[in-house]
Specification:
InterPro entries: Epimerase_deHydtase (IPR001509), NAD(P)-bd_dom_sf (IPR036291), NAD(P)_epim/dehydratase (IPR051225). By secondary structure, this protein is of the alpha/beta class. It has two domains: 5-173 and 214-233, NAD(P)-binding Rossmann-like Domain (Rossmann fold, 3-Layer(aba) Sandwich); 174-212 and 245-280 and 298-315, UDP-galactose 4-epimerase, domain 1 (Alpha-Beta Complex). Helix content is 44%, strand content 15%. It has helices at 13-26, 41-46, 57-66, 80-85, 87-106, 142-161, 187-198, 216-228, 249-257, 272-277, 286-292, 300-314; strands at residues 5-8, 31-35, 49-51, 71-74, 112-114, 117-118, 164-166, 168-170, 172-174, 200-203, 211-215, 240-241, 245-247, 264-267. The strands form four sheets. It has a six-stranded parallel beta sheet with strand order 3-2-1-4-5-7, sandwiched between helices. Strands 6-8-12 form a three-stranded parallel beta sheet. A three-stranded mixed beta sheet has the order 9-11-13. Helix 7 (187-198) packs parallel to helix 9 (249-257). The radius of gyration is 19 Å and the shape is globular. The structure holds 2-amino-3-ketobutyric acid. 2-amino-3-ketobutyric acid is lined by residues 79-80, 118-120, 143, 170, 172, 183-185.
């Protein structure tokens, strides 16, 4: 099978792990990583890398043609907290990058697209518990508005032009390799670093702020899983709800205390509290489970064990 993959935004939190996974799965030379900044040493050494601005249509097209790309994973985006500070920049990045790849697919220059959406598509009027796939969606953040709009465009390009675009609504993602950048769920990564480094953490969300979360390995499995699914099984072409578990900062701190009993947490909520308060607490992802066989593997406590074991090496 002639598959050649381009990852746009490969140097970020998800892109770093996705690149490593896809290079193992398909062979290093078939997976071209790209970003506006270089990736980590492992990424740069393990396969081709292109400096690429996701908003520059000609540059994206040039890389696609030169490397005979079939599949694009568009991971470049400005996340919720940063987007509130730079609304127009966030809108331009999140929308223009999507149109660039959708238009390349419409014009038959690529075959398949993965584009991530987010739980941020939901808003304060959405039911918070077991949030259904289809429900009230009135996002109140710039990031959420861009993701909801992107979902509508994905479905439109699928129906109107037959573009094979696939998407999932990521919850907060936790990993120990590349750091997250500018999200509201970032505390759930930072807390592990601070727990190991200082034994304490000051959280920018309140103790009882429950949000949907997932360990990165499961998120990568879902991402590659939906891309490998038979086209007929991918029935939703806007974006699929996806879930593993939900927790609040207090519950996460209890999980950390099982390994670091002296760990303490304090709370000093900032503007990100309002963003978190507008999002669901738990997600109904039964359509992803039924349509293309999604299942998560890793629990909160398993995640904590993995995070602490790996980050311990960094803070020795
Ligand atoms: C963020 O917090 O902005 C992201 C997301 C939930 O999409 N992690």
């Amino acid at each position: 099978m002639k598959k050649r993959i381009l990852i746009i935004g490969a140097s970020g939190q998800i892109g770093t792990e996705l690149t490593a996974f896809l290079r193992k799965e398909y062979g290093s030379h078939k997976v071209i990583a790209s970003d506006i900044v270089e990736g980590d040493a492992q990424m740069m050494a393990s396969g081709p890398f292109e400096i690429l601005d996701a908003m520059d249509y000609d540059a994206v097209q040039d890389v696609v043609i030169r490397h005979e790309i079939t599949d694009v994973y568009l991971m470049a985006a400005m996340l919720s907290a940063t987007a509130e500070k730079f609304p127009m920049k966030a809108w331009n990045l999140n929308m223009n990058s999507l149109f660039n790849v959708l238009n390349l697919a419409r014009d038959k220059k690529i075959e398949k697209i993965f584009w991530p959406s987010s739980i941020a598509v939901f808003g304060p009027t959405t039911p918070k518990a077991d949030t259904p796939q289809r429900t009230v969606m009135e996002p109140s953040t710039v990031y959420g508005i861009s993701k909801q709009t992107g979902e509508r465009w994905c479905e439109y390009y699928y129906k109107k032009y037959g573009v094979d675009v696939r998407s999932i609504r990521y919850p907060g993602l936790i990993s120990y390799t590349a750091p997250p950048g500018g999200g509201t769920t970032d505390y759930a990564v930072d807390i592990y670093h601070k727990a190991l480094k200082h034994g304490k953490y000051i959280c920018f969300l309140n103790a009882d702020t429950t949000l949907p979360m997932m360990y990165m390995d499961d998120a990568i499995k879902a991402t590659v899983g939906i891309m490998q699914a038979n086209a007929g099984d991918v029935k939703i072409r806007s974006s699929y709800n996806l879930a593993a578990f939900s927790f609040n900062p207090d519950e996460l701190s209890q999980s950390i205390k099982k390994h670091l009993p002296d760990f303490t947490i304090d709370y000093d909520p900032d503007f990100r509290q309002a963003i978190a308060d507008s999002w669901p607490q738990t997600i109904d992802d039964s359509e992803a489970r039924n349509d293309w066989g999604w299942e998560h593997k890793i629990s909160i406590d398993e995640m904590t064990k993995i995070m602490i074991e790996n980050l311990r090496k960094e803070y020795k």
